[in-house]
C-alpha cells in the first residue's frame, strides 16, 4: 500500500513540477516577448550580460596564472637571491621558467621584472632594464597602485609590436616587501576573434575602454589607444547601463571589475523581431536543457527510491520478500479477498535444529538459503515467495490445480537434488490451500488451513524417518 502511495505521490509531484515549470517558462517567454516589443532597453541588457559573461570567462584563466606565478616559491626565492647569482645563471633560470609557462599554457608572452635589479626577464632571456620614468610608465603606475593584479594593453616588442593584453601581478616577499612584477600576455587577436564572432552573431559593436573612455580592445586595431568614446554612462556599480544614441542605435555599458575596464556594446539597426527571436531561441534551448535534466533527475531519484523501497521489503539472507512485505500483501488481500486460482503455500525446513546443533549455525543458514532457492525457482514466476520467520516461508501465487500439481512435483525434484557444502541434503514440509478448493474462505482461513497441512506433512516426515520431532 505504502509503495503504491509513494509511486502515486512521486508521479503527481513530477506532473506538478513539470506543469509548473512549463507554465512559468511560457509566462516568462511571453513576458519577455511583450517587454521586448515595448522596450528595447531590457533586450540590450540581456545581450550585454551574455557578452560580459563570455569575456569574464575568457580572461579568468590568465588572472589565475599570473597570480599563481606571483606566489610561486621558486619565483620568490629567485628574486630574493638574484644578486647572489651570476647574471647568466639568473637569466637562464628565469628564461627556462617563463618559457615553460608560455609553451605549457599556450600564452604569447610571459615575463618577470625584478624590483631589486630592474631586470626585465622574458621567455627568450633578458629583455632589458626596466625604465619606469621612460618607456615603461605602466610599471611605476602599477606598483604605486598597490593592486594585486591589473590588466594593461601594450605592444609586444618581440612579435612585430602586436597588440597584447598583459596581466600584471605583484610579487611580494615576507612583510609585504615588493620583489617585482610578473605576468602573461595574450595577443589581441584572441579577444578580437571572440568579439568578431559575437559582433557577427548579434550585429553589434563591442569594445573595452578604460575609465577615461580610451579604447583598449576592439576589432578595429586602428581605434586601439587612438580613439575615445565620449559621453557614455560609466558606473562602477556592476550594473548594465543603457543609453539611446538616436537613429535606432543604443549602447549598454558595464564595469568589468576583473579588468578595471568597461564593456561597451553598441547596437544599431538590427530589427527588433530578429533580436527577440535569438533571445527566445536561447531561452527555449535553455528551458529544454533544464527539462531534460529534470526528467533525468526525477527518473534517477525514482529508481533509487524504488531500489531503496524494494530493499526494505527484501530479506537480506535469502533475497526473498520479508515479513514486512508479507504483512502488506496480507493487508491488501483483506480488502480484495483472493478468488479464482489463488493458492496459499506454507513451507518449513525440516531438521534445522539438528543441523545447527551438530554442524553449526553456518550449516543451518545454508539449509535456509537452499530452501529459499528451491521455492523461488519453482514458484517465483507465478507469485511471491516470502521468508516470514527463521525457517518459515509463505508463498502466494495464482495457478490452476493442474499447474499446482506440476509445481509440487518440480519442488520435490529440486529439493531432492539439492546438495550443500556443509549439509548433504535438504527437506521441506509444505502445506497448500487453494481458493478453488475453499471458495468461500478468507485469506486468514486459507493461511490456517495451509499451516495445518504443513504441520501434518512435517509430522509425517518425522514419523517416516523415525525421528522424535521434539529433539530436532
Lay out the secondary structure.
Elements lengths: L1 H37 L1 H31 L2 H8 L6 H19 L3 E6 L4 E4 L2 E5 L7 H9 L3 E8 L5 E11 L5 E10 H15 L1 E6 L5 E4 L22 E6 L2 E8 L4 E8 L3 H41 L10 H13 L6 E8 L2 H8 L1 H19 L3 E5 L4 E7 L2 H17 L10 E7 L8 H23 L7
Antiparallel strand pairs: 1-2, 1-6, 2-3, 4-5, 5-6, 7-8, 7-11, 9-10, 10-11, 12-14, 12-15, 13-14
Helix pairs in contact: 1-2, 1-7, 2-6, 2-7, 9-10, 10-11
Task: Describe the fold and architecture.
This protein is of the alpha+beta class. The chain folds into 2 domains: about 230 residues, Beta-Lactamase (2-Layer Sandwich); about 150 residues, Alpha-Beta Plaits. α1 packs across α2, α2 runs antiparallel to α6 and α2 crosses α7. The chain is elongated, with a radius of gyration of 40 Å. β13 and β14 form a beta hairpin. The chain contains 12 helices and 15 strands.
Compact overview of the structure:
The protein has 472 residues and is an alpha+beta fold.
What are its keywords?
472 residues; Alpha-Beta Plaits; elongated; 22% strand; alpha+beta; Beta-Lactamase; six-stranded antiparallel β-sheet
Amino acid at each position: 500500500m505504502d509503495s503504491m502511495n509513494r509511486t502515486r505521490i512521486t508521479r503527481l509531484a513530477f506532473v506538478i513540477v513539470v506543469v509548473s515549470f512549463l507554465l512559468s517558462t511560457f509566462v516568462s517567454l511571453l513576458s519577455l516577448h511583450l517587454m521586448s516589443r515595448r522596450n528595447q532597453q531590457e533586450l540590450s541588457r540581456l545581450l550585454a550580460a551574455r557578452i560580459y559573461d563570455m569575456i569574464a570567462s575568457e580572461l579568468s584563466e590568465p588572472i589565475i596564472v599570473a597570480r599563481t606565478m606571483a606566489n610561486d616559491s621558486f619565483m620568490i626565492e629567485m628574486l630574493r637571491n638574484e644578486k647572489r647569482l651570476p647574471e647568466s645563471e639568473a637569466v637562464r633560470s628565469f628564461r627556462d621558467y617563463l618559457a615553460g609557462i608560455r609553451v605549457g599554457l599556450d600564452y604569447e608572452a610571459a615575463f618577470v621584472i625584478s624590483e631589486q635589479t630592474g631586470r626585465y626577464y622574458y621567455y627568450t632571456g633578458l629583455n632589458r632594464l626596466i625604465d619606469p620614468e621612460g618607456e615603461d610608465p605602466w610599471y611605476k603606475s602599477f606598483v604605486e597602485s598597490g593592486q594585486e593584479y591589473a590588466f594593461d594593453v601594450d605592444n609586444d616588442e618581440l612579435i612585430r609590436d602586436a597588440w597584447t593584453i598583459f596581466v600584471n601581478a605583484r610579487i611580494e616577499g615576507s612583510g609585504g616587501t615588493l620583489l617585482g612584477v610578473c605576468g602573461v600576455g595574450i595577443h589581441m587577436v584572441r579577444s578580437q576573434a571572440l568579439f568578431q564572432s559575437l559582433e557577427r552573431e548579434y550585429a553589434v559593436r563591442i569594445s573595452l575602454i578604460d575609465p577615461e573612455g580610451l579604447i583598449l580592445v576592439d576589432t578595429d586595431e586602428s581605434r586601439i589607444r587612438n580613439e575615445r568614446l565620449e559621453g557614455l554612462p560609466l558606473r562602477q556599480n556592476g550594473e548594465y547601463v543603457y543609453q539611446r544614441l538616436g537613429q535606432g542605435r543604443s549602447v549598454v555599458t558595464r564595469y568589468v571589475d576583473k579588468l578595471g575596464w568597461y564593456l561597451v556594446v553598441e547596437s544599431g539597426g538590427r530589427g527588433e523581431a530578429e533580436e527577440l527571436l535569438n533571445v527566445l531561441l536561447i531561452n527555449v534551448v535553455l528551458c529544454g536543457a533544464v527539462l531534460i535534466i529534470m526528467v533525468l533527475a526525477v527518473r534517477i531519484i525514482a529508481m533509487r527510491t524504488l531500489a531503496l523501497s524494494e530493499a526494505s521489503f527484501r530479506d537480506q539472507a535469502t533475497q526473498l520478500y520479508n515479513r514486512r512485505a508479507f504483512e502488506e500483501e496480507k493487508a491488501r488481500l483483506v480488502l480484495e479477498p483472493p478468488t479464482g486460482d489463488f493458492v496459499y503455500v506454507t513451507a518449513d525446513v525440516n531438521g534445522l535444529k539438528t543441523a545447527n546443533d551438530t554442524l553449526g549455525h553456518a550449516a543451518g543458514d545454508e539449509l535456509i538459503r537452499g530452501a529459499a532457492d528451491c521455492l523461488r525457482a519453482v514458484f517465483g514466476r507465478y507469485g511471491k515467495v516470502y521468508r516470514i520467520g527463521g525457517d518459515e516461508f509463505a508463498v502466494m501465487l495464482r495457478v490452476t490445480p493442474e499447474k499446482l500439481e506440476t509445481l509440487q512435483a518440480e519442488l520435490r525434484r529440486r529439493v531432492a537434488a539439492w546438495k550443500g557444502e556443509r549439509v548433504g541434503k535438504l527437506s521441506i514440509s509444505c502445506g497448500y490451500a487453494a481458493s478453488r478448493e475453499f471458495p468461500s474462505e478468507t485469506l486468514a482461513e486459507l493461511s490456517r488451513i495451509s499451516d495445518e497441512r504443513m504441520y501434518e506433512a512435517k509430522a509425517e516426515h518425522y514419523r517416516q524417518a523415525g525421528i522424535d520431532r521434539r529433539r530436532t
